[in-house]
Design goal:
alpha+beta, 2 domains, four-stranded antiparallel beta sheet, three-stranded antiparallel beta sheet
Length: 206
């Protein structure tokens, strides 16, 4: 499991350096990102939920205004989600639309036998078969084999996602100290809260 951001919002972005979008437009988040990769992630996070008017307004200002908008928005929306890859079969399930990375902890309900809605286009779907969770990459096109996740492994897999996001947050702090120093602490706090990164996993089930 990898937390990923969709990078469409980072196209033609100017306030700070970014990388060219990956071929699949999915950027894995971790503590290993380069400065330009972090720039791409922050371009997505600071741009995604802006109206056309807000985009034009922000485009006329420096990057600090872009970051300030992130800090003051009601809730950060992070397009993307969890990318699931079966390392034995090579089958991959990409995040569905409208189920962003801010909802990543909803996967925890699988441990209780529930079946969360995971977005659409593609439309990932899960079903419980004994101690196995079957994940179909796209329920609208049931082709090939599903990914089979042992329910007992979910805490470890989701714990790994949390660790990757914690590492990403540490990198964001360094990045923000460079590109928006007065806002660095606020950026970290906002992302930590809205993406529910630092809290222990069990708190999400209480």
């Amino acid at each position: 499991m990898e937390p990923v951001l969709e990078t469409y919002e980072a196209t033609d972005f100017a306030p700070w350096p970014v990388v060219d979008p990956p071929a699949d437009h999915l950027l894995p988040l971790s503590g290993q990102l380069s400065v330009r990769e972090l720039g791409t992630a922050m371009a997505v996070l600071t741009s995604y939920d802006n109206s056309d008017h807000e985009r034009r307004d922000l485009d006329s200002k420096d990057g600090r205004a872009q970051v300030r908008h992130l800090v003051t928005t009601e809730r950060v929306i992070a397009p993307g989600g969890l990318l699931i890859r079966d390392t034995e079969t090579g089958i991959t399930a990409s995040p569905g639309c409208c189920f962003g990375l801010e909802n990543w902890r909803d996967w925890l309900v699988l441990m209780d036998g529930e079946e969360p809605w995971l977005g659409h286009d593609p439309t990932p779907r899960v079903e419980h078969v004994g101690a196995i969770v079957r994940l179909w990459p796209d329920a609208d096109r049931l082709e090939g084999l599903p990914i089979e996740l042992p329910r007992a492994l979910l805490p470890e897999l989701l714990g790994s996602v949390r660790n990757q996001l914690v590492g990403f947050l540490a990198c964001v702090e360094e990045w923000a100290a460079r590109y928006a120093p007065p806002l660095a602490a606020a950026v970290v706090a906002k992302l930590d809260e809205d993406l529910t990164i630092g809290a222990p996993l069990l708190e999400s089930r209480s």
